[in-house]
Request: fold
Amino acid sequence: KLSKKEEEEAIRRTNAFEKDDIEDLRKVSRQEYLKKREQKKLEEIRDDLEDEQYLFDGVKLTEAEYRELSYKKQIYEIVRKRSDEPEDANEYRMPDAYDDENGVNQEKRFSVAVQRYRDQSAGDKMNPFAEQEAWEDHQIGKATLKFGSKNKKQMSDDYQFVFEDQIEFIKASVMDGDKFDDDGEPSELVESRAKSALEKLQEDRKTLPIYTYRESLLDAIEKHQVLVIVGETGSGKTTQIPQYLHEAGYTKRGKIGCTQPRRVAAMSVAARVSQEMGVKLGHEVGYSIRFEDCTSEKTVLKYMTDGMLLREFLGEPDLASYSVVMVDEAHERTLSTDILFGLVKDIARFRPDLKLLISSATLDAEKFSDYFDSAPIFKIPGRRYPVEIHYTKAPEADYLDAAIVTSLQIHVTQPPGDILVFLTGQEEIETAEEIMKHRTRGLGTKIAELIICPIYANLPTELQSKIFEPTPEGARKVVLATNIAETSLTIDGIKYVIDPGFCKMKSYNPRTGMESLLITPISKASAMQRAGRSGRTGPGKCYRLYTAYNYYNDLDDNTVPEVQRTNLANVVLSLKSLGIHDLLHFDFMDPPPSEALLKALELLFALSALNKVGELTKVGRRMAEFPLDPMLSKMIVASDKYKCSDEIISIAAMLSIGNSIFYRPKDKQVHADNARLNFHMGNVGDHIALLKVRSMKRARDIRDQLEGLLERVEIELVSNMSDNETIKKAITSGFFPHSAKLQKNGSYRTVKHPQTVHIHPSSGLSQVLPRWVIYHELVLTTKEYMRQVTELKPEWLVEIAPHYYQLKD
Ligand code: ADP
Ligand code: MG
Reply:
């Protein structure tokens, strides 16, 4: 036994021992004590060695394996501290749905890792976990003693969660970067003294890859009427080319229009360019998106969605006020972009002064060139660093959860650099944000600060700029983005990309004319673009939440152009009002299926927008004025007859903003929703409430514009609040093709093309189950659901659409 003095000496001599150890030592002999101290020292030396040589308890590991184990050890540390604070232990628990799931993957993940190390090491002695396991048993024992045995199961579950909640990746390949010599990068840090923000921005412009090619690009544009421009995302196509053209005097002859497939991109790029030019947004530089025009008389650089330029053709069929049209992000092949191709190609023939630029981020530019009569291709060599591609070992059952776990895993284990996560939509991004906040809050100051930045189409403008703000020293930014960050927006500083491999996509059944939004696997081309986002400012890493097998065997090479998978009624109506009648021979780059065209004509005929020979009717001409889907515009036009236009435009405005619908592929719904319920605690509710208020304001704006359009088509604004039946009849006038009848089992059957559907649980009618309903749209989640449902009298169908429905007698 140690004397009191010896004990004090021991405390003085070694800080490495904790009090518990000392207490244990009271019971052992001095000799044993010394032996133990020797051992401790050895361990310390070995620890140091481990850092150098990836030794883990004597076993030599590869760097990746070592990192994995160190990470686990780190987590152990956190858990260990946690186990002394039982009230916090719950923060590590997963939503119940997770526990319920007999997910093989979750179970496999850790046991595979453990087995591998066990196989490697000779027997228990060399097992790197032996010590940890003993310690774990000890801790559980302690916890049980301290807090009673009911905690035992829970504690071990917690450990399990921490262990299993990791994802194994296999480093598969390195995506080559272009050879890039560092001399090209100006070392301007030294000079950044007291420069004005504008000067700084002007210097930044010169560092972009495109800057070197400014003169030759302007030359090529001068020489050729149509030019295809290809350059890596971030090379400066969108922000610089319109400015170069402005500087070269093109704006003296007319506006420069630059189209974007996405609203957020149009707004954000216009904002950036106005900064670079030192002008107020909406003056020389402006943007135009549906229901929001931020341009003025002064505007010479106009960024807009492709859909808006399409609508401009209605008022100005030769685009006379433009000197240059740049169809940007052409590779996205949205429906509107594809239609624009046909239209601009056509007007270029009789407007030789109009310059046409088709710019794209991907290399299949030959197709664009071929389409535009062998237009020359201008390539802007990009800077690209190599990107390491990692795949998961096994498919992930829940990509949202996997994305969150991987982000945190990167945050804890990887060197500085921001993270970009690709998710499919607003709700998913909001869910991920909540869960991430919750989990990092749990970890407190044990990890560096993680700044979470969402970006999606409906994000309020003020919040959008947050993703571009530089990350403070010591912190890490994680950007949760939709496909918008794939090529439309460039975010500097991204070093890690997490790609779950999904995006939200429209799918359309031309046979039934039914359209649904679904979460769909991306294409290989998309996956490459996503990975490339991590290698812009230095070597990057891309973590794919699917296996290499999935990549090579399950993903299509390219995304199917939207024109081949969507309802064309809207486009057909626009083209008809442009005087283009022969749609079957319209110059499509990739023609849509002819059934889809016929279906669109059929629908427009049913809505009385076209007559029997396919000409636009008066109703059709009025409908075309509204930037809405034909069924909605028909509903508005019909409200004239039913004397309730006031109410109907309110309904149309509300339907137009409400696109924050949560679509999830089958079996994932329950899980994600449970996760949301679990995390919908605390102050989150208030924020969401604020968002709702925002949406109301936006609905109000849209309503005001619809009111303006009513005037244009000479429909009087009349309110008829007292008579719901006339309002319902006006709705039916637009949506009669979407009728459904109740079945005995509580489901519904669509009338025109029989299909089983259900009332969405969020609907006020989901418990009422009226015999007849009409619906606004179909959403495929676990079932095919009707959203926004209204009760209907079947007689109305015959009264309103006798050509479509007949009474069976
Ligand atoms: P490309 O169109 O070739 O993909 P861009 O012109 O969009 O390239 O981007 C060029 C550079 O401008 C990028 O490096 C990006 O950092 C910067 N940039 C673009 N938009 C913004 C913005 N809204 N805020 C801050 N920087 C931006
Ligand atoms: Mg761009």
The longest strand covers residues 772-780. The two ends are 104 Å apart (CA to CA). Residues 654 and 696 are 8 Å apart (CA to CA).
